[in-house]
Amino acid sequence: MGTPRAPLTVYGMSTSGNCHKVRLLLEQLGSRYRWVEVDSAHGQTRSAEFLARNPNGKVPILEREDGRILTESNAILCWLAEGTPFLPADRWQRAQALSWMFFEQYSHEPYIAVARFICGWTAADSPRRGELPALRARGHQALAVMERHLSDNDWFTGADYGIADIALHAYTAVAPHGGITLEPYPSIRRWLARIGQQSGFVAMPEPDAEAGARIARSH
């Protein structure tokens, strides 16, 4: 008999923080899944086959064995974490966790992740480089909010580690790729270290050699 088909398939780009969130939680849950690598930076999310799964043309996508599809990284985290210690059962604590996940997508990822993309995946003379000062300033604003919270709390999901921490960890850990240093944020650096010590933790892969070289040249 062959290996049973995995009950979940994830379409994602390994060096994307939004995709890595899903992989990290699946690994920490010990879930069986199949990973399908999609190079969104080079247009693979615009193919007809991909758009049939997600007309928005973005990764990650989670596909169940029965064919049902879920998009948006933080929605996937919530669905996967339901009924587990990664999502608080208490309604107030759950709402607090969700508030940080909304913060991540509205006030954090649009600046820290985009700065990283511009540094790592665009040419050194790209006009988009002109966006970096503003993106970095807004990124530091988001990190300052996180630092303030972490000065009195160990986690963002409540009393324990969970999906809000996973959501915020992904791009915070690689903020220096976009020229956003973490040196001014000791509480964030301690929080990142705590996450790295959690059972089942896996780090986001480094960008490929070409992107890595661009990141190095941009600093």
Would you spell out the secondary-structure blueprint of this structure?
Elements: E1 8-12, H1 17-29, E2 34-37, H2 48-53, E3 61-64, E4 69-71, H3 73-81, H4 91-121, H5 132-150, H6 163-172, H7 186-196, H8 209-217
Parallel strand pairs: 1-2
Antiparallel strand pairs: 1-3, 3-4
Helix pairs in contact: 1-3, 1-6, 4-5, 4-6, 4-8, 5-7
Which key terms come to mind for this protein?
single chain; 219 residues; alpha+beta; 4-stranded mixed sheet; 49% helix; globular
Tell me what you see in this structure:
This protein has helices spanning 17-29, 48-53, 73-81, 91-121, 132-150, 163-172, 186-196, 209-217, and strands at residues 8-12, 34-37, 61-64, 69-71. It is α+β, with helices and mostly antiparallel strands. Strands 2-1-3-4 form a 4-stranded mixed beta sheet, covered by helices on one side. Helix 1 (17-29) packs across helix 6 (163-172). The chain is globular.
How would a textbook summarize the main sheet? 4 strands, mixed
Strand content: 5-15%
Helix and strand element order: EHEHEEHHHHHH
Round the Cα radius of gyration to an integer and report it: 17 Å
> What structural class do you assign from the helix and strand content?
alpha+beta
A few lines on this structure:
The protein is an alpha+beta fold. It has helices at 17-29, 48-53, 73-81, 91-121, 132-150, 163-172, 186-196, 209-217; strands at 8-12, 34-37, 61-64, 69-71.
